[in-house]
């Protein structure tokens, strides 16, 4: 479903992503982990076609993000970091814009918008401008925009950031419900989210993959049997190696 | 055909989104009110609309380039800079949209607000028709060229807006560029250029001036080259706009 091939991106002299490759199959929920500045968001941006990679490619449902950008983007739902949205719109207006921008057939737009509103549980705030919504609701409006066209590949950057425990549980349930038919990549630095949502976890540091395991396998890499221990060990180790 | 649809398919959603942004906030209304007020003030107070003794709109049209120069960059400054500073450019660029449609959708949304503004000056037209018998064909023509000129100013503002995340910076730079293209036809500037570089060069400078191209239209003469100039000018800045907006993908 999603095939990442040797993605490379530099900003000036800083090499943000250094030849990242992995594949995500249908039914997999991949946790994409790493310390701040490890290259998570840069990678997400390249996969979504927002940033052009210096080299390498990402195939989304078989379409290249470099040479068939629009076809690839059509198969992708993307929630950018911080869930940027148009503040002057109401959630239904925003979703109508997304539906038009994604060229959904007119007859399907209304039902797609209703489904996305129900799935992301934002029906109570539909009359409000997005600018007046709390962080948790904004995130869910962004999520509704990402799942609107029922894409085969979902790319979610910090989808549960700023949500209260009940909302987190609702988002997890939604992801679990969508998981069997989609390839989902979730970038997060909240480690507790990983066993709750993901079937596989990739840890990156300084633009390279340092671990690719199941959450259980990741835990066993540490000395104390916790994800946190594994995370610290892996990313510290990389730091020590490069020093 | 298919290629065109891919490239321009983004026009309608983006245009509608931008129109919504102008009219769902006070932005468009404030702009319309202040622009019309300023235009009225200059026409009546500075030009003495009623003292000219002739029933025409030249005391009104003469201010268009100058007011456009200040006001239209304010209308265009948000088009791209706002997306960049709010982070919504990331959302926009992740959608399967063609850049040409994006650029044109934004520009035409702003241009349509300017068009509404021109339409709302109809009381001026009613007044001259009430007072005398003006040449209405000439007036329509001047309105048309003025509308094209407004599009030219907006195309500069939109392109510059794609270069920065700050709306204020976009505004200031756009006004400076707009001033250069406006005042290149100013007699003061032209005579200065003539005395330094000679008459030939002064003519060349005047070729790029909004004032000279608008001048014939103000007299009710449709100069084909003026229309071509404004269309070409817009095309050039719209292409720059597309290039500068595409740079966002490079990081």
From TrEMBL, chain A:
GO molecular function terms listed in the Swiss-Prot or TrEMBL record: ATP binding; ATP hydrolysis activity
SMART domains, sorted: AAA (SM00382)
Protein name: Multidrug ABC transporter ATPase
InterPro entries xrefs: AAA+_ATPase, ABC_transporter-like_ATP-bd, P-loop_NTPase
Top-level taxonomic group: Bacteria
Similarity section: Belongs to the ABC transporter superfamily.
Organism: Hyphomonas pacifica
Alphabetical list of PROSITE patterns matching this protein: ABC_TRANSPORTER_2 (PS50893)
TM segment ranges: none
Automatic annotation (TrEMBL), chain B:
UniProt keyword terms in alphabetical order: Cell membrane, Membrane, Transmembrane, Transmembrane helix
Signal peptide bounds: none
A GO term from the CC aspect: plasma membrane
A Pfam family the protein falls into: ABC2_membrane_2
Record's protein name: ABC transporter permease
Localization per record: Cell membrane
Entry membrane topology: Multi-pass membrane protein
GO molecular function: ABC-type transporter activity
Phylogenetic classification of the source organism: Bacteria, Pseudomonadati, Pseudomonadota, Alphaproteobacteria, Hyphomonadales
